[in-house]
Specification:
single chain; mainly beta; Elongation Factor Tu (Ef-tu), domain 3; Jelly Rolls; 2 domains; eight-stranded antiparallel beta sheet; 2 helices
């Protein structure tokens, strides 16, 4: 009877703790805990001034703890299980939690026992990128027991959505991609689901995460399809900005209607060719949780916001 499980995604391969090609069905999840990100704060001191002055705060990493139960038929298999589990958990992993939404126990008669089976569902539409940090350690002289695995985030100290926001624009709710806690509007045409805009200079886009997108290592792209020609001699060029980001100005470059300007958080492209030197302000789009207005000084055929959502 399995009420809780963890999906492990590595190299585009999906495995579950309770049933996988490495450890088969020898493991069960007892508990799963993702701790909040720790903070590193930097301070300065000034001579003859009491106290200290706060300079900056950074979120370092999240720690993940999984407590497991193992059971093998023979003592000789325990050591083999440890080696196979090490193979499953080496490298970079994405973890995703599953649980039984409602556990209803079937009535059992002493004369007619029933098999208790429950259907697991994803808890939400989020995953977290981690690496194993502790040694895998359990008593290999026993055929069963409990042990703990410890992980920590490898890059961003946040959960991220399984899929891009653009999927919401096209699909109804899918519990393999989004969960009830993600709080998405029920109807596909709902404005909060919209990520593509046509024939506009201004608009409002909704970002459904709880962590702002403002770092180059977050998965986010904004694409602008130009609706008019812009001469390289036009000193004004095109300026695009969002409510919470500085202005992005592209100038000194011959641009045609239909050209696609792309910002990926680090570089700027025209038709997939880097044009960083023509982004005179060197800025990139920033999205904050909730509604974000955007503006362009030139008419745009299309604007597309494509990103993962990030959560605390």
């Amino acid at each position: 009877m399995i009420l809780h499980d963890i999906e492990i995604i590595k190299d585009k391969e999906s495995n579950f703790i309770s049933d996988n090609r490495y450890t088969h069905q020898a493991l069960r999840v007892i508990s799963y805990d993702v701790q909040g990100a720790g903070y590193e704060r930097k301070f300065d001191n000034i001579d003859r001034v009491n106290g200290r002055f706060h300079n900056s705060t950074t979120e370092e990493k999240k720690k993940v703890t999984i407590k497991l139960f193992y059971s093998v038929e023979k003592i000789a298999y325990a050591s083999h299980l440890k080696a196979r589990l090490q193979a499953l958990l080496r490298g970079e992993l994405y973890l995703r939690e599953l649980a039984v939404p409602e556990a209803k126990i079937k009535f059992e008669s002493p004369f007619a026992p029933q098999k208790q089976e429950f259907e697991l569902e994803y808890v939400d539409g989020r995953q977290i990128k981690v690496g194993l940090v502790n040694d895998i350690s359990f008593d290999t002289t026993q055929t069963s027991g409990e042990f703990t695995l410890e992980f920590e985030t490898l890059e961003l100290p946040y959960f991220e959505s399984i899929v891009y926001n653009t999927i919401l624009e096209k699909e109804d709710g899918n519990l393999e991609k989004w969960g009830i806690p993600d709080d998405n509007p029920f109807d596909v045409p709902d404005q909060e689901r919209r990520s593509t805009f046509y024939d506009c200079k201004t608009g409002v886009v909704y970002y459904g995460g709880t962590v702002e997108i403002k770092q180059f290592n977050q998965d986010s792209v904004v694409e602008l399809t130009l609706g008019e020609n812009i001469s390289k001699d036009d000193k004004a060029g095109i300026t695009f900005y969002l409510q919470y980001s500085d202005r992005m100005k592209i100038a000194g470059l011959e641009m045609r209607a239909g050209d696609v300007i792309k910002f990926d958080g680090l570089h700027t492209y025209r038709n997939n060719i880097r044009i960083d030197e023509y982004n005179t302000t060197k800025q990139q789009p920033v999205l904050y949780p909730g509604w974000n207005s955007f503006n362009s000084t030139k008419t745009l055929q299309k604007v597309v916001f494509k990103h993962k959502r990030y959560y605390m």
